[in-house]
Amino acid sequence: MGIIESTYSVLIKIAFKFEIFYPQAINYFLSRKLKEYKNKGTITDYKVKTKRKEKFHYFLEMDLFIDKIKGGEEHT
What does the angle CA 31 – CA 36 – CA 38 come to, to the nearest 5 degrees? Predict the structure, then answer.
């Protein structure tokens, strides 16, 4: 096994050790992108909620708020 393969193997093992922090990372990167959309005016507001249910199982809830004029729907 070469140095590239062994380095890759070690990095994969380390990544799975930090699996507990994936929901926070997902929340961070989604919020960053949605903030860009909000600043551009594509959406008016957003809420992102991530939670770790069990190992490798996550709950993701995302609410996007859009103006009716820009493509939202009317609620009665």
Answer: 90
Tell how far CA 59 is from the center of its chain: 11
φ, ψ of residue 75 to 5 degrees: the values are -105, 135
State pTM to two decimals.
0.67
Summarised one tens digit per residue, pLDDT across range 38-73 is 998 888 999 999 999 988 899 999 999 987 665 556
Tokens of 74: 């009317």
d(CA 36, CA 46): 11
Residue type, 32: R
For residue 51, what are the β-bridge partners?
Answer: 59
